[in-house]
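[Discussion] Sanity-checking designs against the backbone

I'm trying to build intuition for which residues belong where. Below is a structure token string of 518 positions. I'd appreciate it if someone posts a full sequence so I can compare it with mine line by line.
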């Protein structure tokens, strides 16, 4: 009887968690099947970074810096290449990755999905340890999956999926701190684990710097110093593969921090107050859950103090730390609004919500029924939100496919110029960061030519073309069509030299009427 009573909750929890994970994997597959290929920026750049590591070279793409992602790509790609050797011939590692880039990216993406699933299990189990139920953790995860921001962790090979997984693990460790009895001593192993996760997060993407505040979940300064030192050593260890690029990384990020415009453009100083306010309004549109979670945490803390009711365990500290991480992220992103920059903060918004859910459920009758109903409603809302976003992206992809078909119609030379969903263009975009693969790509794609909107010149994989070279190249073709985002005046070529053939919301194809001359 005792064994049966012990196993029943475990089987029930396992079934609920299994359904949740099945839904997650379905959404990951469904999104991947609907929104088109992987992106040139930065997915292919990360792929080339992993390929550089496999060639024992320093990756050229270190902007994020993203080194843990590149190391993961290198390891996964090597294993996949070895598995393909008996079936794919004797293609070299570099040639096989370049010519089957979408396959390699797809496998890497699948591994990232598995890592995220494992991180979610860890997060839920950490909360279940003291709560005795998986309801708080599952409800919190379902709540953040209703956000559009989480959509950017699906079908991508960049920093965000890895950062999402690592931040969930870190939030799981903070949950263990929050669920300890007041006055309990800090566990050195927990401080080490928190430090390792912080170092990994910041090495994955520098916008994760606010997670440093997680060390304040530890009560003693000795434990905090230990966690901080571990984070510092961990971050440096992850960045060792790009050691020669450390000066560039420091200078580039300081430039971004100290200049007004996007990616370090504009003059020195902070944006104008009106601009910052507009950015914060835009950020709230991107991620309304951030401000709502802050308001909720503040409301609970104020209500608990006003009613003179102590929160259980170390929930008060947990809410304060989670709120501080969310607020610091909002402040950081206010300078340069991007949806993806909020990804690490979502794990801590989820942790704060889970702690509140645990407290609320303690005061409710029929807790299982209430938790089940809330979970079901949130699951429906999460699926609807992700399906809505997927449908929107699918509509854009279908429209872009029509533009793509028009570009290749009639046997014309197709010249992509900026962000098109074509694998050869993605390879060209990535090789702009790492010219070491240019000769190999020039051999594989000798007829490819692109237009560089930044430099206002035509180029192929071998390098830029002079106006005379481009003119002679185009003279051999029946017709030339430019394909990319709708043309802008700053792209270099006069609009008089282009004739619009077809466009969608994001892409357009033009006939080139006049070739460039010296």
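Best answer:
Here's mine. Compare freely.
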């Amino acid at each position: 009887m005792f064994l049966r009573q012990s196993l029943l909750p475990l089987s029930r929890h396992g079934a609920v968690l299994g359904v949740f994970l099945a839904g997650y994997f379905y959404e990951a597959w469904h999104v991947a099947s609907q929104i088109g290929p992987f992106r040139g920026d930065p997915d292919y750049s990360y792929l080339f970074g992993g390929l550089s590591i496999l060639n024992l070279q320093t990756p050229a793409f270190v902007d994020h810096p993203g080194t843990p992602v590149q190391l993961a790509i290198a390891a996964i790609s090597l294993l996949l290449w070895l598995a393909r050797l008996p079936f794919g011939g004797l293609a070299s590692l570099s040639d096989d990755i370049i010519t089957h880039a979408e396959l390699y990216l797809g496998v890497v993406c699948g591994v990232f999905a598995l890592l995220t699933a494992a991180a979610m299990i860890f997060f839920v189990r950490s909360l279940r340890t003291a709560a005795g139920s998986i309801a708080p953790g599952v409800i919190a995860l379902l709540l953040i999956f209703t956000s559009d921001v989480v959509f950017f962790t699906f079908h991508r090979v960049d920093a965000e999926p890895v950062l999402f997984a690592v931040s969930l693990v870190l939030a799981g460790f903070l949950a263990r701190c929050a669920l300890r009895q007041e006055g309990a001593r800090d566990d050195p192993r927990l401080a080490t684990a928190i430090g390792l996760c912080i170092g990994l997060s910041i090495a994955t993407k520098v916008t994760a710097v606010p997670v440093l505040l997680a060390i304040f979940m530890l009560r003693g300064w000795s434990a905090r110093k230990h966690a901080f030192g571990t984070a510092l050593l961990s971050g440096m260890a992850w960045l060792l593969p790009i050691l020669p690029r450390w000066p560039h990384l420091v200078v580039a990020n300081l430039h971004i921090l100290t200049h007004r415009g996007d990616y370090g453009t504009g003059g020195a100083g902070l944006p104008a107050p009106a601009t910052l306010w507009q950015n914060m309004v835009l950020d709230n549109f991107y991620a309304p859950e951030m401000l709502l979670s802050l308001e909720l945490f503040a409301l609970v803390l104020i209500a608990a103090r006003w009613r003179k009711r102590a929160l259980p365990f170390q929930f008060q500290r947990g809410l304060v730390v989670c709120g501080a991480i969310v607020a610091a992220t909002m402040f950081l992103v206010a300078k340069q609004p991007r949806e993806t920059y909020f990804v690490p903060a979502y794990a801590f918004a989820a942790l704060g919500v889970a702690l509140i859910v645990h407290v609320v459920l303690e005061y409710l009758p029929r807790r299982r029924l209430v938790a089940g109903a809330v979970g079901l409603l949130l699951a429906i809302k999460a699926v609807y939100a992700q399906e809505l976003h997927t449908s929107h992206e699918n509509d854009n992809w279908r429209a872009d496919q029509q533009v793509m078909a028009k570009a290749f119609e009639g046997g014309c030379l197709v010249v992509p110029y900026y962000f098109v969903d074509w694998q050869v263009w993605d390879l060209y975009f990535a090789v702009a960061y790492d010219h070491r693969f240019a000769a190999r790509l020039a051999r594989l794609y000798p007829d490819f030519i692109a237009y560089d909107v930044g430099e206002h010149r035509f180029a192929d994989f071998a390098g830029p073309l002079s106006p005379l070279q481009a003119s002679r190249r185009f003279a051999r073709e029946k017709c030339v069509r430019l394909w990319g985002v709708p043309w802008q005046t700053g792209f270099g070529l006069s609009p008089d030299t282009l004739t619009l053939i077809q466009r969608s919301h994001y892409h357009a194809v033009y006939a080139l009427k006049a070739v460039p001359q010296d």
